From TrEMBL, chain A:
GO molecular function: transmembrane transporter activity
Database matches in InterPro entries: AA_ABC_transptr_permease_3TM, ArtM/GltK/GlnP/TcyL/YhdX-like, Ectoine_EhuD, MetI-like, MetI-like_sf
Species of origin: Paeniglutamicibacter gangotriensis Lz1y
GO CC field: ATP-binding cassette (ABC) transporter complex
Protein known as: Amino acid ABC transporter permease
NCBIfam families with a match to the protein in the record: ectoine_ehuD, HEQRo_perm_3TM
Domain (ABC transmembrane type-1) ranges: 27-211
Biological process per Gene Ontology, one example term: amino acid transport
Keyword annotations of the record: Amino-acid transport, Cell membrane, Membrane, Transmembrane, Transmembrane helix, Transport
Transmembrane segments: 29-54, 75-101, 137-158, 165-187, 193-212
Similarity remark: Belongs to the binding-protein-dependent transport system permease family.
Automatic annotation (TrEMBL), chain B:
Coiled-coil stretches noted in the UniProt entry, renumbered to this chain: none
Source organism per UniProt: Paeniglutamicibacter gangotriensis Lz1y
Domain ABC transporter: 2-247
NAD among keywords: no
One cellular-component annotation, GO: plasma membrane
Stated name of the protein: Amino acid ABC transporter ATP-binding protein
Amino acid sequence: MISITTALDWNWDTTWDVLPTLLSTFLKVTLLVTVLSTLIAALLGLVIAMTLRLAPKPIAVTVKWIANFIRMTPIVVQLLFAYYAFLSLDGITIGILIFGIHYSTYMSEVYRAGIDAVPQGQWEATTALSMSTRRTWTAVIIPQALRATIPALGNYAVSMFKDTPFLLVIGVVEMVNAGLIFGGNTYRYIEPLTLVGIIFLLASYPTSLLIGRLEKRLAFNT
Amino acid sequence: MIEFRDIEKSYGDHLVLHELNFSVAKGDRVTLIGPSGSGKTTILRLVMTLEEATDGYIFIDGQPLTHEERGGKRVARSKKDQKDIRKRIGMVFQQFNLFPNMSVLENIIEAPVHVLGQSKAEATTRAMELLEKVGLADKAEQHPTSLSGGQQQRVAIARALALDPEILLLDEVTSALDPEIVGEVLGILRNIAETTDITMLIVTHEMQFARDVSNRVLMFDGGKIVEEAPPSVMFSDPKHQRTKDFLHAVLGDAEGTIGTH
């Protein structure tokens, strides 16, 4: 008799066996990479956006060209390239850096739009008050630009979170990879992969709620 | 106090100001009137360094503002030099331009603390005095977006005064306000005019206010001064036909004049 394994053969014992492994991988790898990469992307994105606006033209043009290049090439290629180019770094470090850099190029565009959306009158008020360039940016422009950019930045963070399975191409045991390894040992793939999907969903949803709350907290009329 | 020498300003082919020459003495209250597009607002923006003249020079107390003549050439002054002079000038805008991410108080103490280097306590004391003056001391902790237009403009006036400017530029400060609250803002400005010796350059469509506050009125048309007179003369006995037509249009009466009250 040939038995065809389908989702209907769902095995609860397997489910409970794999769940702890997946959850601990989620915390130690997926979440860690997402949080650190988001921080890098958010900071570097702002630096890129401000460089494009403030730096002398040759520097701005170079940065713009590099950012475009990074944005236009697949993240998997960048992961593999960095993995083989920097053999001394471990996979997770490579992952955090590449995700952070890759998404910083997207986030810089979000910041750029947010900065452009600050009304001309705000800039004029900073001139009329003789504010320094530094105060103009830190006290007026960035706080206002940020308010408009929070939802889009949050969405990129969620999208980065969902991209973390790409890390398996450089051998990082993140959730999907952990599920595959479990499947390889037990010949049961459906349970781990279904659980991976559910964990992603359960993590993404509260994150989007959190972004919504943050958006409200950053509103001016509170 | 302020001198315009051969000022030219154009946007591409469009000439906004042409061979402009005039001076404003210390303590003068000069109102600029004229049809829209006549270059009045541009003059205020040049003094605030929001825009640069295409040619010519502006002097503040004899010091060149943005450009100076060196070896027969017109050269830009350093950003630092420009800023040192700019600190002596304040401006109130038509659209208020308060910082929505700061409270009313933070808006007012921003420049005193970070530009003039006052302590926060010192700046706050002064800010509260100014808020008292504009009747909004109870709104110090609120955000500008929760205030009415008239209240926002009063905060903007307090913010401009917090730098203790020697020159105050008022750019159509009541144009964005509902008619019934124009009076409260003008009342505050009248009070400032009466109790200080700040030099004022005013662009307004409120002719009664111009008459009450200013000691000189300049009529602009096509980027040039067509007539200059004290308000008592300008509003009751304008000489130039262009001035007569303009006053007739804005005042909407048969004489083109406004009475004293």
